[in-house]
Design brief:
Shape: globular
Largest sheet: 4 strands, mixed
Radius of gyration: 25 Å
Helix content: 40-55%
Structural class: alpha+beta
């Protein structure tokens, strides 16, 4: 059957032209973030085969009991829906994500497998090119009362939708989730120090499931071109004064170069913010929470950024460039320091290494003030891709059944997890321990797409029917963050994967690699060896120390609650006011004194009320 599926996939493009409702042939893919698509019709012989399979699997003597069309096995584990059900959702499909020829977000190896094996067919209400467009479409769907069954709202949207009665409260559903889902929730709640549910709890009820990720996902890193640094005969900068001197020397030698990255959303500015203790989160001062965007520390950081802009250290056109466009200077070797997510080792750094083989890059600590202190506060904590179920969904429980199957399959080789689930949750995992295969077309894909950091979406494998499942698909790469429905990592395992990769790199001992760690280790090395090198030599050891609390650098956002009433009404305007004012100050079209006016406007247009609401929450949650 596995061989048959690979042949069917190869024929997918040829069949596309004859499929009346085919989604094949559309451009795009699912991105963490092109064109809308629809589910392809299947040939009559395929339908007959699928129906026969469904009939066989629904027999109680073979597959356990069936309740309301839900088939369970003898141990009470979910098997499938019979007959199949349909869930509608939406997705962000970026231009940098790929599908096998003739397939798309709705019609691919995984969605076909889900329908055939779990009895769940996913259909897209819409597909967006980016997160901003996706947010707008979700608001429009809310306004027209035409939302999908499963949505991915922001914190503010979750509150607004829940208060309008458009979301399903999850509390009763959570009482009956599969044990492996309960483990995921318990693990994340512990590692978030009890903050996991708070952003999505409205009037005491839970309305969205946060997307657990590895803890490194919430922070940025600084990277520097050490080969350029050596040419300037300068040391790695530690303080803001060191950075001043370095940027001056760089600009003198490379007047058309970009000393640092900055994009239209101010991505990259944390390079400077840390030195001043500036942030856009809520932190405690004198026993109360204050918003970082209106504090004196932000004023000082903006003044420094304005100075850098006036001296030519920052791209004069940053205000019209998104992150991808701003990265082009890094890829071309025209940038000294880059601040952003650690995953930059895939993009933009891999294209840079391919274009400039002699380019040397290193992850470096945060820049401190001249007194040697700095702080980093993130305004998000597993809030980027929560999953909510709308009130019109006929099968809300299906989201958790699918999530449980995904977790069971994806983490099947985690021996410690198997033992914990058996002993503490009375749960035997459904999927067998499986030998992780190497992709059969890795070399071909690497040659065809040399500048794609991790072209996993196009890899092919040869797992048997019994082995196939999430994470072990033959023709579609299923990554935790992009599962349809709830997409998430088991947080403790995600953190551990990176540790095993670093240990394997340092010792040369592959036996220490976890399942996912081994996959990433091989994929990174096959894409470009500098990916693992940069991660293991700089990123991981620094973050491992910071996550352990060394130096007191990392600080949590003081507010972890849902959007307050005034946030729902005024936050969008305040965010717009903030980025417009900050951008104008940096570019010099407004003097630094405009910050003081911004603070007054922020308070007068809802900020003061938001501060009061946040502190009411803070007082009751101390």
């Amino acid at each position: 059957m596995a061989k048959k599926k690979i042949v069917a996939r190869i024929l997918c493009a040829a069949l596309a032209a004859s499929l009346v409702l085919s989604g094949c042939g559309q451009n795009g893919g699912q991105s963490s973030e092109s064109a809308p698509s629809s589910q392809a019709s299947q040939s009559s012989s395929e339908n007959e085969s699928s129906e026969a399979s469904a009939e066989e699997s629904s027999q109680p003597e073979e597959s356990g009991t069936a309740e309301n069309g839900i088939v369970f096995d003898e141990q009470g584990r979910f098997v499938k829906y019979d007959p199949p059900i349909t869930l509608t959702t939406h997705a962000v499909v970026g231009v940098d994500t790929m599908f096998h020829e003739g397939c798309d977000i709705e019609n691919n190896g995984w969605t076909q497998w889900l329908k055939e094996n779990l009895g769940i067919e996913w259909k897209m209400k819409w597909v967006s090119a980016d997160s901003e467009n996706n947010t707008q479409k979700l608001d429009l769907a809310f306004a027209s009362d035409d939302m999908p069954d499963v949505i991915y709202p922001s914190v503010g949207q979750t509150t607004k939708f829940a208060q309008a009665g458009k979301l399903t409260a999850l509390d009763e559903l959570l009482d009956n989730v599969p044990p492996i889902v309960q483990y995921y929730l318990d693990d994340a709640e512990a590692l978030s120090q009890g903050a996991f549910w708070k952003p999505f709890t409205v009037d005491g009820k839970k309305y969205a499931v946060p997307a657990g990720m590895d803890s490194l996902a919430f922070w940025t890193d600084n990277f520097i071109r050490t080969d350029i640094l050596a040419g300037l005969e300068m040391e790695i900068p530690e303080t803001i004064s060191d950075l001043d001197a370095l940027f001056a020397a760089y600009h003198e030698k490379y007047p058309s170069g970009r000393a640092m990255r900055l994009d239209k959303d101010l991505g990259g500015w944390e390079l400077v913010l840390t030195a001043y203790g500036a942030n856009t989160a809520w932190t405690e001062k004198e026993g109360k929470l204050v918003y970082g965007g209106v504090q004196p520390e932000m004023r000082d950081a903006l003044a420094k950024l304005a100075e850098y802009y006036s001296k030519g250290y920052i791209d004069p056109e940053f205000v019209v460039k998104d992150g991808s466009k701003a990265n082009e200077d890094m890829i071309a070797g025209n940038m000294l320091v880059w601040n952003g997510a650690w995953s930059a080792i895939a993009n933009p750094f891999t294209p840079m290494w391919n274009a400039l083989p002699d380019a040397e890059l290193k992850a470096i600590p945060f820049i401190t003030g001249d007194d040697g202190t700095c702080s980093v506060v993130k305004d998000t904590w597993w809030t980027d891709r929560p999953t909510a179920i709308t009130s019109g969904c006929e099968h809300p429980e299906a989201v958790f059944y699918a999530f449980g199957d995904n977790l069971d399959s994806y983490y099947r080789n985690e021996a410690g997890l198997r033992e914990t689930l058996k002993n503490e949750y009375n749960y035997e995992m459904k999927y067998p321990v499986t030998q992780v295969q190497d992709p059969i077309n890795a070399e071909e894909i690497a040659e065809k797409y040399p500048n794609v950091g991790q072209p996993r979406q196009l890899y092919l494998y040869e797992y048997s029917d019994e082995e196939e499942g999430c994470g072990y698909m033959n023709d579609y790469y299923t990554q935790q963050g992009s599962w349809l429905g709830i997409g998430a990592k088991i947080v403790s395992i995600g953190n551990g994967d990176f540790g095993t990769m670093t240990e394997a790199y340092n010792t040369g001992d592959r036996s220490v690699l976890s399942t996912d760690g081994g996959k990433m280790f091989d994929e990174w090395n096959s894409t470009h060896p500098n990916m693992v090198k940069t991660f293991a030599e700089g990123i991981y050891p620094y973050w491992d120390a910071l996550m352990a609390g060394e130096g007191g650098v990392l600080k949590p956002n003081g507010y972890a609650g849902a959007s307050t009433a005034t946030m729902v009404e005024k936050q969008a305007y305040l965010d717009k006011l903030q980025i417009e004012t900050f951008t104008q100050i940096i570019m010099g079209t407004q003097p630094i004194e405009a910050f003081d006016e911004f603070v007054n406007n922020w308070n007068a247009n809802g900020g003061e009320d938001i501060t009061a609401e946040v502190n009411e929450w803070y007082s009751s949650n101390k």
